[in-house]
Automatic annotation (TrEMBL):
InterPro entries linked: Fatty_acid_cis-trans_isomerase (IPR010706)
Keywords on record: Isomerase, Signal
Region forming the signal peptide: 1-24
Name of the featured protein: Fatty acid cis/trans isomerase
Native species: Halioxenophilus aromaticivorans
Pfam families: CTI
Highest taxon above the source species: Bacteria
Gene Ontology molecular function: any one: isomerase activity
Amino acid sequence: MALFFRRVNRITLFALCLALTACAAYTYHEFNRQYGEPETKDRLVESNPKVDFFEQEVKPILDSRCVVCHACYDAPCQLKLSSAQGIDRGLVDYPVYRGKRLTASDPTRLFVDEPDTDGWRQRGFYPVVNERRDQPEANLEGSLLAKVLDLKARHPLPGDKILSEDHFDFALNRENQCPKVETFDYYAKAYPEAGMPYGLPGLDEQQTATIKQWVADGAWLPETKPLSTGLQAAVEKWEALLNQTDNKSRLFARYFYEHLFLANLFFDQVEPQPDNRSYFKVVRSKTPPGQAIDVIATRIPSDHPGTTEFYYRLQYQPVELVSKTHLPYALNDKREQWITELFFTPQYQVNSLPGYQQENFNPFVTFEQIPARSRYRFLLEEAHFYIAGFIKGPVCRGQVAVDVINDHFWVFFVNPDTNAAPMLDGFLEQQASNLRLPGEQGSNGGLLSYWTTYSELHLKYQKAKSQKLQQFFTEQPIDMNLVWDGNQINQNAALTVFRNFDDAAVRKGIIGNPPKTAWLIDYPLLERIHYLLTVDFDVYGNLTHQLNTRLYMDFLRIEGELNFLTLLPVAQRTAVRDYWYRESSDRLHKHLLSYSLAELPEPAIEYGDEDPKQALYQRIQDRIGPAVSQRYNLASAEVADGIKQPLLRVQNTKGAPAALLSETSILMVEQSNGAKQLFSVLANRAHLNITSLFDEKDNRMPSEDTITVTHGLVGDYPNVIFSVTEQQLSAFADDLVAMEKDSDYTQLVDKYGVRRTNADFWQVSDDLHNQYHRQQPDIAGWLDYNRYDNK
């Protein structure tokens, strides 16, 4: 109750706490007297009229009005309403994100850390629907969900267009209030404006009545349905592949699991339409295929499973898709054939299986018996998945991963068919000790060792890599063959990354105007990104674990950028690098100077009088050719010139207008024929450098800010929605590019924006999601409004 407590002094606070404790105890016993003792019930049942009512009438309301804030790790009070199991689990009064914790906390992952609601009750979770006597009155009185809807109905949003900070707290690190139903009356008096949806328009009368009818009838939820015959056969086929008993197969299965545990696996041969697919997670289970899955709940995938006999299983995920965590990955006959060619056809022996000791937090030790080329191809063919993984991965509030990257950059990859990729002939095995990662320290990391142990190890690796490349480039030139061209068909060959404060998005293609930086990623770098930020990263880890992860990511970003600089003329490399790292700290500058950019020879790339970096961007685009996805590129979008030209004008705007925009704006354009198109207007914040943990504002360069406009939706946490007609679009662009001060942005939102307080907010949101699923059905999910502006 932080907002309320801030207004009272310590003596009053102490007295109030005593009073509330006494009142809570009284109310709890009074609830028991009237409605019986609380007890979990088997709420998930097979289909019946009440369950059908939930699925047909209630669930669409919860999805479109509640899941948009209650789905990810940072869902207020850990209340996840995106599944029947999450609704039944309820909420708890402590957050996942407690950045200052000195010891790791216990994980609370739905479907993983407890098998049922009884287990969650023992963990301190309490219900959002009634668990006392099953009678209509008791069900309504005992339902927190019904009470927060009633509170909203009694106290709708005020008439102000911008909500008062005295009554509404939208800060990212706000302290959420998580009342129990027994103390809800005190909560309602302290926070009368805190009904749900919080800080947004309330549900209409019919929607509220529908949910309350479901609550009054007992809030029954659907049990997970059996899989179709086709899906069951597909699951059995892949589980058979993953549970073969020879060493070669078992090592591959571990590699598959540790690299795809985040994936939403689907069978497109069985369910070809994206809007009608079932998704699965690969898990480790104590039980073999054919039996019910008993998940082994380790903190991270590379932890010891706690038993010598375990099985890889595909666990059905009965959840609504949310954009932030949706990482689709297809399993089909083509994928199986490809895996066979990579991991089973090559002639190599697996004499013994690796263990789970500390050294096995290093993938170059664990999987050294699998040919490095096979490992690289496995990652490279779906590179978008792995780059997106460190953004969409085990976190929903991603400062650790994304405040160490620029706001807009392009990603390319080293060609696996050139020996210049330093991954062959035992090189990685020789360098395994230098490729250690801070995840080996575990979730309760000790003293920070960034500038001691890991910086020295990274420098040793970089020096050895440079020496190896020098040997290679005495015989063959540095040329465009170093860049993977996706075999002219694979759109993973070129990616664009957009950062939005503590979130980011990755899309296939070379999107937007040329950025400040680019990465060229080789196998050792791609593997370490995956292990550092997904496999070994524990969102429940302590402060030092998370800081070590953040600090090591500096090295990986630098490495990718230096790889790219290799393709530039020697005389240009240092100047470009120094511009990227203007006014960096003395320690980092010294670290950067340890990399000699002149050791590798001049590239055999003709630059002439062109700006080398811009020319290199064009050379890479020409090399990749048809494999460069055009899906999000505004310039190639199939839209009318009356729409494209104003938006291109916005994209070519720099400085003040870009700095005034929120990071992620969604633009919904209604065309003359009534059809709607989605665009994203992304403000790219410029920095002197992005190496500091705490001084981002001091490193900002607003005059260098840029804008990227994409055809289609990019980003999971929109800050604002603009809704305009095709006829208004030119005026919208004029107003945007003319902005010079805060009041100009306020006027832009006044004219075209959809604020939290807009009476049509939910209608616009529905239109937006409908169009998102039509325009981008393969990746679409519910957006998250936890970062939506109040300005």
